[in-house]
């Protein structure tokens, strides 16, 4: 085990709170001790990931409470360390990401699927390396199928969150394949048949992100697909949604989609202007009008 108290004591001894830090040569014994301490930490983290991977890879009977509890416990342990981007990448090398995906999409225990989905979201979010690897292992297709077929609301929420975390960001391959595999149609259908407010918001968050990339990657033809799918009237209809954040997100999505000067943006412009005009006639909506004005006048870097 690493002597963390000793390491902290040594670090604090190198300076004090009243004077600037003055670097000094490290003697051989201290250098050796520090190297061993850090090496020991890396060894234990690697061993932990190997143990986690081994448990995740075990086959399930689907009817053993102890088996279910073991998988849940190991996933909770993984959840406590997965936020570290380097450890998330190390999980790839240990084979853990592959088995995490398999647990998320194929476990016989609903609680295990949910937990695995939550951890997957943390692992892939804003992590280009993990996103690309997960994509290569079929995570995108599996999650799109899961979002479409899942009937349990909480599990479906987790799957939508995982899909959003996987597709959003800088991994062009994932975004391209999502669009080409009718991802916009899936989002539209989920938004039109909401089973929970969280699902609607997560779907809109992904929609906002995708529409932003229409301007950057016009070859994906995001605008044309959205237009053909009737996305604009769907978003405009959210003017009457009871949730303020949903209304704001719908405006943001329309704003992003209307940035490219393409034929057909007139419907967006006219719809947003009419939305804004009605808000101007409602004194009790002044705060919401201000928020919408901020969105419409924000310029992307």
Give an account of the 3D structure.
There is one protein chain. The chain has 301 residues and is mainly α. The protein is 72% helix and 0% strand. It has a domain at 66-147. Helix 2 (28-56) runs antiparallel to helix 3 and helix 12 packs parallel to helix 15.
List keywords for this structure.
about 300 residues, 17 helices
What is the strand and helix layout of this fold?
Blueprint: H1 4-13, H2 28-56, H3 65-79, H4 85-93, H5 96-106, H6 110-124, H7 128-136, H8 139-149, H9 153-167, H10 172-180, H11 183-192, H12 197-216, H13 222-228, H14 231-236, H15 244-257, H16 265-280, H17 286-296
Oligomer: single chain
- Residue stretches low in confidence (pLDDT < 50, at least 5 long) are 7-12, 14-23
Which range does the strand content fall in?
under 5%
Mean pLDDT: 85
Classification by helices and strands: mainly alpha
What fraction, in percent, of the residue positions are helical?
Answer: over 70%
What gross morphology would you assign? Answer: elongated
Count the DSSP helices: 17
The end-to-end distance, rounded to whole angstroms, is: 47 Å
Largest β-sheet summary: none
Number of DSSP E strands: 0
Work out the radius of gyration. Answer: 24 Å
SSE pattern, N- to C-terminal: HHHHHHHHHHHHHHHHH
What would you say about this model in short?
The protein has 301 residues and is an all-alpha fold.
